Amino acid sequence: MPELPEVETVRQTLKQLVLGKTINDVTIHWGNIIKQPAEPESFKRVMIDQTLHDIDRMGKFLIFQFDDVHMVSHLRMEGKFAVHPSEEPMKKHTHVIFHFTDGTELRYNDVRKFGTMHAFPKGEERKNKPLTLLGPDPFDPSFTLPYFYEKVKRTTRSIKAVLLDQSVVAGLGNIYVDETLFRAGVHPERRGKELAEAQVEAIRIAAIETINEAIQQGGTTIRTYVNSQGQIGMFQQKLYVYGKENEACQQCGTLIEKMKHGGRGTHYCRTCQH
DNA sequence: AGAATCACCTGTGAGC
DNA sequence: TGCTCACAGGTGATTC
């Protein structure tokens, strides 16, 4: 499911529903989601009696800030957090339930069971994997042209692979990489070292603008994404290439193509992107 | 260093 | 209608 704009929308919608609540029990139906502590029972133990004070985000990770524990969670393809009264029937594929003292529950639902949760002592989360593997968010002041150009110019990898690499810039996934490269007029298979500085700057600006606009629209819903209040995103109306194969390019009329690159479906306009 | 492949899972839609 | 296969907003391990 979600890339940075969807995770940010989940963060914003979820915050309104759960801040200030205190956990009095945790139910874990699929233990593989819990990565730290390794034992689900230990995870459960450290979470009980914790009160939630804030929800932060880095790249595609949510960071739930409790009294003494910071829980880092990745939704991977289809993970969803929602809040329900405890008496409400459980949906299929609900794998982790945080029970609150007020009779409501934070439920984690994930058809594909790919999502992850790591609990760390407060303040330790940024010193450990997975967060140490992340580069800056696109709109972070440290995502500068000198930083980005340095990374791009000395690699033989494709620019698409570079943009998907979360250690270079965090938060872009398959949709926003394809959209960013269309906006910048760069072909996804171009090697990093082949790109001129001006093109790298065009990509950087396009990434920042695409991500910012998508956040404004509440993310992109292609298949299953909804935010924590059950609403779909609207950015799919602003897509130029993702999912548009065999449709006319909005800039030149050429049919948008879809190919396989690095194992991912890749959408582009052969006329507008070089 | 980086590419390719598999692994983790389930559901859906296309093609036969 | 029913089967099989490819594919899906992601990432991590392994192998070459």
Question: How does the SSE layout of this entry go?
Answer:
Blueprint: H1 4-18, E1 23-28, E2 34-36, H2 40-47, E3 52-58, E4 61-66, E5 69-74, E6 80-85, E7 94-100, E8 104-109, E9 116-121, H3 145-153, H4 159-164, H5 174-184, H6 197-216, E10 257-261, E11 264-268
Parallel strand pairs: 2-9
Antiparallel strand pairs: 1-7, 3-4, 4-5, 5-9, 6-8, 7-8, 10-11
Helix pairs in contact: 1-6, 3-6, 5-6
The structure holds a DNA duplex (16 and 16 nucleotides).
Active site: 2-3, 60, 264
GO molecular function, one term: oxidized purine nucleobase lesion DNA N-glycosylase activity
Domain Formamidopyrimidine-DNA glycosylase catalytic: 2-115
Model description:
This protein has 274 residues and is of the alpha+beta class. The protein has 2 domains: 4-133, N-terminal domain of MutM-like DNA repair proteins (Alpha-Beta Barrel), CATH 3.20.190.10; 145-268, Helicase, Ruva Protein, domain 3. It has 6 helices and 11 strands. The chain has helices spanning 4-18, 40-47, 145-153, 159-164, 174-184, 197-216, and strands spanning 23-28, 34-36, 52-58, 61-66, 69-74, 80-85, 94-100, 104-109, 116-121, 257-261, 264-268. The chain has a 5-stranded mixed beta sheet, covered by helices on one side. The chain binds a DNA duplex (16 and 16 nucleotides) through residues 1-3, 6, 32, 60, 74-78, 93, 110-116, 130, 155-157, 161, 164, 166, 173-176, 219-225, 242, 262-263, 265.
